[in-house]
């Protein structure tokens, strides 16, 4: 019953609040953070999207601009510990039928990494084999420019998070498709910005 209530709270109140463009995220930051800690992460696969037998997975590469005197816009990325097994990765999870791709990516990032920000345009689509099942996954990754790091989040007791350089993230992340998505993000960051 508690999971049902917390899931309904998330889908009927909290997620629409986060995805609304009319409400500032800074409106009730502490109250919002405390509510996020109470919300149980989504579990089960009954709402999971599949396409031609491939489970559809979405995630984000949370990033921020490094503080330094050179102002060269170098980025840091946030990685999280894998729930099963070793290693660090970017937050990702199942895309469900009651949400858009961007909503699912943000939800997974809040649940697993405890950060909120702006989901930017898709980095691409990758296919990879599931480690636990004999199925393929169709993975989509988005950059997320972090504007708030929560002290409390739904999976805080199961995951560690760590900011690191792009080079460190590529070294520590075992998933080639995530590293390819990171390469796309870096190439976007290094492209000259159009003059207005």
β-strand amount? 25-35%
End-to-end distance, in Å? Answer: 53 Å
Radius of gyration: 17 Å
Shape: globular
- Parts with pLDDT < 50 across at least 5 consecutive residues: 1-9, 20-28, 33-40
- State the helix count: 5
Q: Report the helical percentage.
A: 25-40%
Output the CATH class name: Alpha Beta
Number of strands: 9
User: Helix-strand pattern, N to C?
Assistant: HHEEEEEHEEEEHH
CATH superfamily: Nucleoside Triphosphate Pyrophosphohydrolase
- Structural domain tally: 1
At CATH level 2, the architecture is: Alpha-Beta Complex
CATH topology: Nucleoside Triphosphate Pyrophosphohydrolase
Largest sheet: 9 strands, mixed
Mean pLDDT: 80
Q: Helix/strand/pairing class, anyone? A: alpha+beta
Describe the structure.
Strands 1, 2, 3, 4, 5, 6, 7, 8 and 9 form a nine-stranded mixed sheet that branches. The protein is of the alpha+beta class. Helix content is 32%, strand content 29%. The chain is globular, with a radius of gyration of 17 Å. It has helices at residues 2-19, 29-38, 101-113, 166-172, 176-190, and strands at 50-51, 54-65, 75-81, 88-89, 92-94, 115-119, 124-129, 136-149, 161-165. The protein has one domain (47-190): Alpha-Beta Complex (Nucleoside Triphosphate Pyrophosphohydrolase), CATH 3.90.79.10.
